Amino acid sequence: MDNLGYGGNTACVEVRSRSGCLAILDGGTGIRSLGQALAGEFSGQKLSLHLFLTHYHWDHIQGIPFFLPLYRPDNNLTFYAAAELGPVGERLAGQLSRPYFPVSLDVAAPRTFVEIDRPEVKVGDLTVRPFPTNHPQGAYGFRVEADGHVLVYAPDLEHGHPHLDKVVREFAEGADLLIYDSQYTPEEYEKHRGWGHSTWFEGTGVARDAGVRQLMLFHHDPWHNDQFLVELGRSARSRFENTLVATEGWYADISDPHWRASPAGAGI
Ligand SMILES: [Zn+2]
Ligand SMILES: [Zn+2]
Q: In the prediction, which pLDDT does 268 show?
């Protein structure tokens, strides 16, 4: 295994405000371990969870059937996605039914599905603002604000679309942390035009243009091992110093003014 340093799960990010409001961005395979952690932390308590999906490609929903809080009838789960992407419940129903999944969800936690058709959604003191990205079949990013701090999550997008390139810069403006699709190197990208992903090089450009504090390279290509990602981070830092390489299980308090990126990401 040559990816144990940065991890091999697919997209899932947890965001919490100071008051404890919690949002989950995407339900990739990483949500399985998040579910275990939440079940431990809130053992015996009812959970009201809010899951925001950028789109329905497999790598962003694959972990949902294995998310422990889904199987506690006392919990409440609300799934959100942009209305333009279609009915959320219908989109998710397929993966939790025969012949793809063995367990009936009759005893699962009640689920609510929300198609976002307005500029922002409030979850307690978290404000989530979706923005469209350039990606096959459509996708969205999220700007999440709380306590005067900003996290921007843009996991799947291809640069080069004149309008949407502007949109991501507008929504990333002044972010404390920008999580950006950096699947390819600029050289690899040339062979993958139209696949819907961007590069670390473009990520550093967006980070500079939008004046973000920290950039996180995200959505690693499965072909890139730990050593490759170390090099990729090094290249990106030569253009934008405050660059992190996303690492599984890593967390930061972005409201802490002294928080700084560790150069190679946590755990490496
Ligand atoms: Zn995708
Ligand atoms: Zn993806």
A: 35
Centre of ligand 2 to C-alpha 46, Å, is 31
DSSP single-letter state for residue 197: -
Integer CA distances (angstroms), 246 to 108, 225, 249, 264, 265, in order: 32, 13, 9, 9, 7
Distance, CA of 261 to CA of 240 (rounded, Å): 12
pLDDT at residue 221, rounded to an integer:
94
In single-letter form, the type of residue at position 37 comes to: A
Contact predicate 242/213, CB 8 Å:
yes
- Those residues of the chain that have pLDDT short of 70 are 107, 260-268
* Degrees, nearest 5: CA angle 226-155-53: 125
Q: Are 117 and 83 in contact (CB under 8 A)?
A: yes
The CA 12 to ligand 1 mean position distance, Å, reads 13
| Encoded amino acid at 112, one letter | T
Give the tokens for residue 126: 């978290």
60 CA → ligand 2 middle, Å = 6
Q: Tell me how far apart the 2 most distant CA atoms of the chain are, in Å.
A: 53
CA of 211 to the centre of ligand 1 (A): 26
**Can you give 66-80 as a three-state secondary structure string?**
HCHHHHCCCCEEEEE
Q: What is the Å distance from ligand 1's center to 219 Cα?
A: 10
List phi, psi (to 5°) of 106.
-60, -30
- The DSSP code for 199 is B
